[in-house]
Write a structure and sequence with these properties.
The protein is an alpha/beta fold and 236 residues long. It has a single domain, classed as Glycerol-3-phosphate (1)-acyltransferase (3-Layer(aba) Sandwich), CATH 3.40.1130.10. 47% of the residues lie in helices and 16% in strands. Helix 1 packs antiparallel against helix 2. 35% of the residues are buried.
Length: 236
């Protein structure tokens, strides 16, 4: 039993090393291409293609359900947040029409920060109310131009298998810009890359596009829809 456990741990370390090498290599390749590629939509298409290629090369089964139900007009996507790879998964799943609204700490991550800027991502301060207000107004102006947006309204994730409270930002932007809300459930990323652990596992990931909602009642309804789809409780 001891030898079998050691073999399992050794195989897991090799797999993690392979995935890290793959991720860094693909990330640099995507960045180099996007440094010279004009236009946000082509850059996002490249990022989505590299994201799907990474999941495929890592042997992680990946499926998207309900893509045809996405509105053909600008919209605001809200999704649950359970792992560091949720952004990559959302980029792999969605068409290249979306700007991601991301916590400002990501600006300081080497390579990733520059790539995210090239993709038109919007960085929002979470801890300084004044700076956060400035960032929120910038996102509102962007939405007013008809730019579709992706939010993870929980803002962060924990080890608890539950859907956290939603911050109001995504829903305020949707209401003021008269844009529909699209609720999306991301299944399996917690099992692929668990919070608080430096590990990666071959587990299936499924992105489920649930429902298109009007902005008025979307904050509560979208959270309930996502929790029901995931089979998880709402955090109190």
């Amino acid at each position: 039993m001891g030898n079998a456990e050691n073999l399992r741990k050794g195989a897991q370390r090799l797999y993690l090393g392979y995935c890290l090498t793959l991720f860094v290599g693909m990330g640099f390749a995507a960045l180099v291409i996007n440094l010279f590629l004009p236009g946000l939509r082509p850059r996002r298409a490249v990022a989505g293609a590299f994201s799907r290629a990474f999941l495929r090369a890592a042997g992680i089964p990946f499926v998207v359900e309900g893509l045809a139900s996405l509105p053909r007009v600008p919209c605001v996507v809200v999704a649950n947040h359970a792992s560091y790879i949720d952004g990559l998964v959302a980029a792999a799943a969605l068409p290249p029409d979306f700007a991601f609204v991301i916590k400002k700490e990501m600006v300081r991550v080497p390579v990733a920060g520059l790539l995210l800027r090239r993709l038109g991502s919007q960085f929002v301060e979470r801890f300084d109310r004044h700076k956060g207000g400035v960032d929120a107004r910038r996102v509102l102006k962007l939405a007013a131009t008809g730019q579709s947006l992706v939010f993870f309204p929980e803002g962060t994730f924990t080890e608890a298998r539950e859907v956290g409270k939603f911050h109001a930002g995504a829903f305020t932007v949707a209401a003021r810009s008269d844009m529909p809300i699209v609720a999306i459930a991301i299944h399996g990323t917690r099992d692929v890359m668990p919070p608080g652990k430096f590990s990666l596992h071959r587990r299936p990931i499924r992105v489920e596009i649930l429902e298109v909602l009007s902005a008025g009642d979307a904050k509560l309804h979208s959270r309930e829809l996502i929790a029901r789809a995931l089979g998880q409780p709402l955090a109190t």
